[in-house]
């Protein structure tokens, strides 16, 4: 048979043809939350997810995927601090509200934060040299960092934004008689106690936690975004749970944490350019906000008036998918989300203008660009009705 006739001859088919691979389904891209604009040009777009739930976990507003899994990072700190408080440390070491607030914070490393942490560690009889949170990139406060550099002072771990959290587990170890030098290890009793507190706050068992190592050297935990919002709704009103609810054991301690953060917003972040602090000051007694790395933020919204009517406590959680390295998108989206759900308006919104539309300037101080929230946060009833 010639090559040509061989090519044209009918081909024998196998009895079981090879399966055709199914086309892969790509998840839809998250919605755009914020656009970075320079002149008439959109230079970048930041996508992400927002969800608000009430005290019972029912979704009130949502955009994107409420089940997107996120690492809590520093957003876990208010719940982790319960481990210290329920052990009796307030009475043992005369811990004050501003000290509770800074131990639940990601502070700016200013002198006020350093002095507050030093004071509680002295009363507990532990040295700040035990802090194992590192110093990289700290302090966050630019003016403090500039002053230290000018004076030839190298910032120590106590200037790290996580030193308050680390101090809390060192103090817990001192109270319980546990070893101090290795307090940060995953299997250390103090970290086991933290895991228990976080698990209870989220209504799961410690064995069910999904863990990862945070930048400061201790574990962090992963949850769907709606569960982050639910935990912050619990922080907004810890008394909402029924006595048989496993979370009820945390109620008295979370009330202390919430009230300390409300009363001391400058300890939650810092005195300059920290959104968590500015939210607390713009809405006294109504908001407890706590950011986490990679553009996560949880907000506990206490019950109160919204657009002329009373609305009960809720929690809002927001995640910018790209991590928002410059912090512009997270700020703009957080303020806009709180505006859309009716919490921020009038004078409070004006106080937060620099976060709502973060500006970019040139070397001469001229306005060169702006981050603008472009999303619409729909009530869940409009989506399913």
Walk me through the topology.
Blueprint: H1 3-8, E1 32-38, E2 41-54, E3 59-63, E4 69-71, H2 77-80, H3 82-85, H4 89-93, H5 97-103, H6 111-124, H7 142-150, H8 163-176, H9 189-201, E5 210-213, E6 219-224, H10 225-236, H11 251-263, H12 265-268, H13 275-282, E7 287-292, E8 296-301, E9 304-306, E10 309-311, E11 314-320, H14 328-340, H15 346-351, H16 353-356, E12 359-361, E13 367-373, E14 378-379, H17 380-384
Antiparallel strand pairs: 1-2, 1-13, 2-3, 2-11, 3-14, 4-6, 5-6, 7-8, 8-11, 9-10, 12-13
Helix pairs in contact: 5-6, 5-11, 8-9
Keyword list:
single chain, 385 residues, alpha+beta, nine-stranded antiparallel β-sheet, 14 strands, 37% helix, globular
Low-confidence stretches: 1-18
How much strand content do the residues show?
Answer: 15-25%
Category from helices, strands and their pairing: alpha+beta
Tell me the number of helical segments per DSSP (H or I, 4 or more residues long): 17
A few lines on this structure:
The chain has 385 residues and is an alpha+beta fold.
Report on this structure.
The protein is globular, with a radius of gyration of 25 Å. A hairpin with a 5-residue loop joins β5 and β6 (219-224). The termini are far apart. α5 (97-103) crosses α6 (111-124). The strands form three sheets. Strands 1, 2, 3, 7, 8, 11, 12, 13 and 14 form a nine-stranded antiparallel β-sheet that branches. The protein has a three-stranded antiparallel β-sheet with strand order 4-6-5. Strands 9-10 form a two-stranded antiparallel sheet. The chain has helices at residues 3-8, 77-80, 82-85, 89-93, 97-103, 111-124, 142-150, 163-176, 189-201, 225-236, 251-263, 265-268, 275-282, 328-340, 346-351, 353-356, 380-384, and strands at 32-38, 41-54, 59-63, 69-71, 210-213, 219-224, 287-292, 296-301, 304-306, 309-311, 314-320, 359-361, 367-373, 378-379. The protein has one domain. The chain has 385 residues and is of the alpha+beta class.
